[in-house]
Amino acid sequence: MTKTVMGSLRIGAIASLLLVTAVGCRGQQNTVASGGTSAGAEAALAAPAAERSGAGAPSAVATLADAELIRVYKTPTCGCCSGWIDHLREHGYEVATEDMDDLTPVKVAQGVPARLQTCHTATVAGYVIEGHVPADVIQRLLEERPDLVGLAVPGMPIGSPGMEVPGQRGDPYEVIGFRRDGSTVVYARR
Questions:
Q1: Tens digits of residue pLDDT in 19-68
Q2: How far apart are CA 176 and CA 116, in angstroms?
Q3: Which residues are paired to 3 by β-bridges?
């Protein structure tokens, strides 16, 4: 597992996650064995979800600095994830990345419904961002603070940030808001 850290972070506890079978970008399989999951790693994974406990929106305790730092969990071999990270940085976000062979513990801890899961998961200001969500839609989320667990762009559509193909028109897609009870709402269309 390699770690790239931008700014001050507290993600070192995740280093001991149990890594068994990984599904990377576009379903590629990776297998690796590692140590067990520590209590510290579980707490680090659950922290943003804990802010969302109950029926209300994420805690108002999140500061502006928290809102601008996006923590991205991705597989080490995913090129489209790197493209999405570049997109976020181009839009002024500070990004910290954690390369992991198995993202399942992160997705489960953050409450991402299986039908919305894709190649990377991020957290920002108590929200979860799954897949290639555009930076301006993340900004809208942070300004509006809706009663959602997070946003997802399932299916890795061509033309979404990080999935651009030169000379090819992008596919229309939806940004889906998801709630703790599994219900969803279309938050944006592109």
A1: 222 233 433 333 222 333 333 334 445 555 444 433 344 443 343 444 47
A2: 8
A3: 98
User: Nearest to residue 128, comparing CAs of 105, 116, 110, 109?
Assistant: 110
CA 23/CA 38 separation, integer angstroms: 22
Phi, psi angle pair for 41, to nearest 5°: -65, -45
Residues 33 and 19: beta-carbon distance below 8 Å: yes
Q: Write out the H or E segment, with its range, that includes residue 139.
A: helix 135-144
Burial class (CB in 10 A: 0-12, 13-18, 19+), 190: middle
The whole-model pTM stands at 0.69
Domain residue limits, the chain:
3-189
pLDDT score for 29:
30
